[in-house]
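$ ./design --mode recover --in tokens.txt
reading tokens...
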């Protein structure tokens, strides 16, 4: 599955893509790669979880009550092929 979101602002270009399942078989979670161009000093990209985006949206909505903060896309659960096969 390919998930990509790109936003251009006065800062530059911000891309959220490359969902990756991490953790272990009992507690898997998905992270997303955030890339900012031009890169910040010492940082070219970071990986964050969906709940980090939920926190950011909630915080921005609270700090700026008159500003529209777009909703997040629905949370998608990535199930590895190995895990699906073990459930059959």
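writing sequence...
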């Amino acid at each position: 599955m390919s998930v990509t979101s790109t936003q251009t602002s006065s800062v530059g270009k911000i891309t959220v893509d490359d969902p990756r399942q991490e953790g272990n078989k009992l507690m898997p979670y998905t992270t997303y790669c955030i890339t900012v161009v031009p890169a910040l000093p010492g940082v070219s990209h970071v990986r964050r979880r969906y709940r980090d985006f939920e926190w950011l949206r909630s915080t921005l909505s609270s700090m700026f009550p008159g500003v529209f903060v777009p909703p997040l896309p629905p949370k998608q659960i990535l199930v590895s092929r190995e895990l699906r096969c073990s459930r059959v």
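exit 0
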